[in-house]
């Protein structure tokens, strides 16, 4: 017999979940997707497993910004040529 104070689900019962609930995901490093050790490093709302991963992530973000700046520079030069 199950007592009224028992909070375990009845055997064979379906799990109760909210319709819009996101699946649970273990926390992983934002760069290498590796597990965290004893220390987590945080920057800009992201968590990293090591200082190396944090630096590599920063380098990748800087390169993306540089690439975008090169594209915008190219577009500006093409507009200048077109309007000349």
How is the secondary structure organized here?
Blueprint: E1 41-43, E2 46-48, H1 51-83
Antiparallel strand pairs: 1-2
Provide an overview of this structure.
It contains one helix and two strands; from the N terminus they run ββα. It has one helix at about 50-84; strands at about 40-45, 45-50. β1 (about 40-45) and β2 form a beta hairpin. The protein has a domain at about 40-84. The protein has a two-stranded antiparallel sheet with strand order 1-2. The chain starts with about 40 loop residues before the first strand and ends with a helix. By secondary structure, the chain is mainly alpha-helical.
- Return the average pLDDT rounded to an integer: 83
Structural class: mainly alpha
Strand element count: 2
What radius of gyration results from the CA coordinates?
25 Å
Shape: elongated
Number of helices: 1
Question: Distance between termini?
Answer: 88 Å
Q: What strand order characterises the main sheet?
A: 1-2
Uncertain residue ranges: none
Assembly type of the chains comes to single chain
Keywords summarizing the entry:
84 residues, mainly alpha, two-stranded antiparallel ribbon, 1 helix, elongated
Would you summarize the structure shown here?
With 84 residues, the protein is mainly alpha-helical.
């Amino acid at each position: 017999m199950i007592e009224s104070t028992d909070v375990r689900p009845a055997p064979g019962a379906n799990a109760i979940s909210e319709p819009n609930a996101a699946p649970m995901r273990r926390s992983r490093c934002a760069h290498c997707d590796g597990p965290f050790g004893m220390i987590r490093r945080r920057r800009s709302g992201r968590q990293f497993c090591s200082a190396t991963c944090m630096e590599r992530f920063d380098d990748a973000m800087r390169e993306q910004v540089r690439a975008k700046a090169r594209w915008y520079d190219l577009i500006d030069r093409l507009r200048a040529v077109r309007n000349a």
